[in-house]
């Protein structure tokens, strides 16, 4: 798929912008702070309805305006659809397809699919477990858009259950004993919605694993495909549960076991919001129990800066490969990544992505972008986006 036209109104620094795009590689080059990332962020936002830079929508609206509009003509299998989202901070956003309103904004998710590489990706590896859970959930929803509903339901259940536990702890509603009856209802919701998310994350981790090893081997000099591993670590023992129904039972059992703790601490301690995607790399000598395999250490806390970057790139490349294996050709966005990479990694990355249907690249210095990814070049300066035919 590719975007053939992008229109922005009051999005970030743009009062208004119209950019015609083509399949193949397009690079946006300009000094810092000129609005290059804002352009690609708009396309990525349409894919997930979430920015890669900020958690809330307010910063996406131009200072002084009260709503932003992002509109893109998206071409898939020769057919064009015009997707539009109206961003209204503090009020409901609205989405349209070919000018017809959608009943729910989240129905837009996944109609345009992007895989975005950015300097923020280092947080995938070095940041809190929440970063890696978000990575899995974003990819899960891109592959199976109906799961956007499951994810939103789980977040809502968790918020309401936490609020009930807090109320009990502070003596409201008859204190801890008083909230128990209502808690049983929220336990049901949490176990049901949590089991769906957890089962999907387990399946996704299994599907992604071989692609991560392969991608790491390509981007990290001298590495083999066994060197990068991912493993899903639930926060409690699933006792062999793998199906959604079994996981639901396991969550119920753990909720019963931890009920006293939850009431005392006033917070939900069981569920996929406490899980971790463990990333490890092979390092040093072989493990004594497995002579063919190097011993593994967690990336977080042990890996070098370069290894951490390679792992972050491998996670994105693996996402891209997995979506392609699903029969999709997502839009690749490389936002400001080349300045962070040495020449070898730049060239390797360029070679891997050059064949995508559409690649959008941003860079402050044109010379940082490998020649294979020069493509059609735009200069971005002071909010003006002009084709550079030089
Ligand atoms: N909501 C907003 N309203 C007005 N201006 C904004 C808003 N959000 C961001 N900006 C401005 O947009 C500019 C940043 O644009 P962007 O992140 O696209 O820069 P860039 O060209 O990618 O720069 P760099 O090369 O440093 O990454 C900044 O000058 C910032 O002040």
UniProtKB/TrEMBL annotation:
Keywords: ATP-binding, Cytoplasm, DNA damage, DNA repair, DNA replication, DNA-binding, Nucleotide-binding, SOS response. The keyword ATP-binding applies. PANTHER family: DNA REPLICATION AND REPAIR PROTEIN RECF. This is DNA replication and repair protein RecF. The keyword Glycosyltransferase does not apply. The RecF protein is involved in DNA metabolism; it is required for DNA replication and normal SOS inducibility. RecF binds preferentially to single-stranded, linear DNA. It also seems to bind ATP. HAMAP family: RecF. Its main location: cytoplasm.
């Amino acid at each position: 798929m590719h975007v053939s036209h992008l229109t922005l109104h009051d999005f970030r620094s743009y009062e208004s912008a119209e950019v015609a795009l083509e399949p193949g590689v397009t690079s946006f080059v300009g000094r810092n702070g000129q609005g290059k990332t804002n352009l690609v962020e708009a396309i990525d936002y349409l894919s997930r309805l979430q920015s890669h830079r900020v958690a809330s929508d307010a910063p996406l609206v131009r200072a002084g305006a009260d709503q932003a509009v992002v509109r893109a003509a998206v071409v898939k299998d020769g057919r064009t659809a015009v997707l539009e989202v109206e961003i209204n901070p503090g009020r409901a956003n609205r989405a349209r397809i070919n000018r017809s309103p959608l009943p729910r904004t989240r129905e837009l998710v996944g109609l345009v699919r992007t895989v975005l590489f950015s300097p923020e990706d280092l947080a995938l590896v070095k940041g809190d477990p929440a970063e890696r859970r978000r990575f899995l959930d974003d990819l899960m929803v891109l592959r199976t858009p109906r799961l956007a509903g499951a994810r939103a339901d789980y977040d809502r259940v968790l918020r309401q259950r936490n609020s009930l536990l807090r109320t009990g702890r502070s003596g409201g509603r008859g204190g801890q004993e008083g909230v128990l009856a209502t808690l049983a209802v929220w336990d049901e919701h949490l176990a049901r919605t949590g089991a769906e998310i957890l089962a999907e994350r387990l399946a996704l981790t299994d599907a992604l694993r071989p692609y991560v090893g392969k991608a790491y081997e390509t981007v990290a000099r001298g590495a083999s495909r066994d060197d990068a591993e991912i493993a899903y670590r639930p926060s409690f023992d699933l006792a062999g549960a793998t199906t959604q129904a079994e996981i639901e039972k396991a969550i119920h059992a753990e909720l019963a076991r931890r009920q006293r703790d939850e009431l005392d601490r006033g917070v939900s301690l069981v569920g996929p919001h406490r899980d971790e995607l463990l990333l490890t790399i092979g390092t040093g000598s072989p493990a004594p129990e497995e002579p063919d395999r190097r011993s593994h250490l967690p990336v977080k806390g042990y890996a070098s800066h370069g290894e951490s970057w390679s792992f972050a790139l491998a996670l994105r490349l693996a996402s891209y490969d997995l979506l392609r294996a699903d029969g999709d050709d997502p839009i690749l966005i490389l936002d400001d990544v080349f300045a962070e990479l040495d020449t070898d990694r730049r060239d390797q990355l360029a070679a891997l992505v050059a064949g995508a249907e559409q690649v959008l690249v941003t860079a402050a210095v044109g010379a940082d972008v490998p020649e294979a990814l020069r493509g059609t070049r735009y200069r971005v300066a002071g909010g003006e986006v002009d084709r550079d035919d030089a």
